[in-house]
């Protein structure tokens, strides 16, 4: 059950986090960008982030030194002439519908500046996933995050048009990552709620994934939501929204609002207590299934906890966690085995960070090699996961990720 859940999560995530469709480039001169030094931003927010990690939202007003140099409307123009795929989302007949930013993408024609201006005129929100591999200024933000926070990360960017109303842009939902929001232009209002009770069936099974509520047809009822806190983000502000906390946004700007979301991908790359528990059991040849429905809300959120801010994990704590999760259980790995698995995870985490750092270095959307580099990076991340499976003696996990590696290898072969 745990393994299946991990794999399902990971499959869903892969589409949003290592999707390569956003990365096609064409060959013209590289954009010239001066990127601000952002390491001080992360060293400033890191102590309070650590203290409040996955427990409460945080607002850091005016933290970015020169927010619009990170991303502004003309940054978008740097993509004109490339085959990068962005999205626009506009309100049609009361529902939000996504469409490609470049309507000629399928016919192989590059992005034109009129595509951008007309999307903004249509009141459409423009967005890019995997923006760390598209925009040099965002890749430099991602690199600072990797080196200061020591967590894998992925950035998306959202550009919302002028709007005088209090229109809700994105309905209330939860995400699978802890998110840092960087407001670079205009104003955006965020409302964040504490985690609602986990919806369960009559026989106590988890009915809806608590990490993707409000998506794919699920609507979070107002009755589930309590104690909202609202934040009005101005250029330079940073907001932290913990994993699983419902939130929604609205644009209240008389100018375009631009923000970046930097997701800390613990769930995606196997860096949660649940993964660590699974790995310890598998490594010791013990049964790793656990009934997640039976562990209670507190137990569930403990499982989802991101692991390994430096030096945090000790084998006695991991053992305590496993015993508390299954009080009836008799067979547990030895301290020595747990210690070895922690060491494996530390190495795994360093490897993931190393691969991402490589992906986010020398990004240039005008270089045709950009897409090759991004696909290769995604492949290498999946390879890290496959190797984690081998290291903890879980063949099913290894095989699942090797399938993805093979798909990526096929894509790379075609690109030669
Ligand atoms: C807009 O952003 C780019 C980086 O994407 C930066 O080079 C440029 O200086 C910024 N322009 C302004 C007016 O801040
Ligand atoms: C919006 O609704 C109207 C009336 O129901 C319909 O005629 C029209 O095709 C719809 N437009 C889109 C884009 O779905
Ligand atoms: C876009 O939004 C503005 C402000 O809410 C509104 O005045 C304008 O009519 C909208 N434009 C379109 C094309 O919907």
From TrEMBL:
Pfam families: JmjC_2. It is an enzyme of class 1 (oxidoreductase). Its cofactor is Fe(2+). Gene3D superfamilies: Cupin. This is Bifunctional lysine-specific demethylase and histidyl-hydroxylase. Residues 1-22 form the signal peptide. GO terms for molecular function: histone H3K36 demethylase activity; histone H3K4 demethylase activity; iron ion binding. Its EC number is 1.14.11.-. Residues 124-281 form the JmjC domain. Binds 1 Fe(2+) ion per subunit. The keyword Metal-binding applies. Coiled coil: none annotated. The keyword Oxidoreductase applies. The lineage of its organism: Eukaryota, Sar, Stramenopiles, Ochrophyta, Bolidophyceae.
């Amino acid at each position: 059950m745990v393994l299946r859940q991990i794999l399902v999560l990971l499959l869903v995530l892969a589409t949003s986090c290592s999707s390569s469709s956003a990365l096609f480039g064409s060959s013209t001169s590289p954009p010239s960008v001066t990127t601000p030094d952002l390491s001080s931003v992360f060293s400033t927010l890191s102590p309070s982030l650590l203290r409040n990690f996955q427990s409460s939202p945080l607002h850091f007003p005016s933290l970015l030194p020169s927010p619009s140099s990170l991303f502004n409307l003309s940054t978008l123009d740097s993509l004109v002439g490339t085959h990068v795929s962005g999205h626009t989302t506009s309100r049609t007949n009361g529902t939000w519908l996504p469409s490609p930013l470049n309507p000629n993408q399928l016919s192989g024609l590059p992005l034109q500046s009129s595509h951008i201006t007309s999307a903004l005129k249509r009141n459409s929100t423009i967005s890019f996933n995997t923006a760390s591999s598209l925009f040099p200024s965002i890749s430099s933000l991602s690199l600072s995050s990797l080196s200061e926070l020591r967590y894998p990360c992925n950035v998306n960017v959202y550009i919302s048009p002028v709007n005088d109303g209090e229109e809700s842009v994105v309905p209330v939902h939860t995400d699978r990552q802890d998110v840092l929001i960087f407001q670079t232009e205009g104003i955006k209002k965020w409302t964040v709620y504490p985690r609602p009770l986990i919806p369960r069936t009559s026989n106590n099974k988890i009915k809806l994934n608590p990490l993707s509520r409000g998506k794919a047809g699920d609507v979070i009822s107002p009755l589930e939501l309590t104690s909202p806190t609202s934040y009005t983000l101005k250029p330079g502000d940073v907001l932290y929204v913990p994993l699983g906390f419902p939130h929604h946004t609205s644009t209240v700007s008389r100018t375009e609002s631009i923000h970046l979301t930097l997701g800390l991908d613990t769930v995606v790359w196997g860096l949660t207590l649940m993964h660590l528990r699974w790995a310890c059991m598998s490594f010791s040849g013990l049964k790793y299934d656990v009934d997640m429905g039976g562990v209670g809300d507190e137990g569930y959120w403990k499982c989802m906890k991101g692991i390994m801010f430096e030096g945090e994990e000790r084998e006695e704590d991991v053992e305590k966690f496993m015993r508390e999760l299954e009080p009836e259980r008799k067979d547990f790995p030895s301290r020595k085995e747990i210690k070895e698995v922690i060491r494996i995870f530390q190495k795994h985490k360093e490897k993931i960070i190393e691969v991402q750092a490589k992906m986010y270095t020398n990004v240039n959307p005008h270089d045709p090699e950009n897409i090759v580099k991004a696909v290769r990076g995604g492949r290498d991340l999946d390879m890290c996961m496959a190797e984690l499976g081998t290291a903890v003696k879980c063949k099913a996990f290894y095989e699942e990720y090797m399938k993805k590696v093979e798909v990526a290898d096929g894509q790379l072969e075609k690109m030669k």
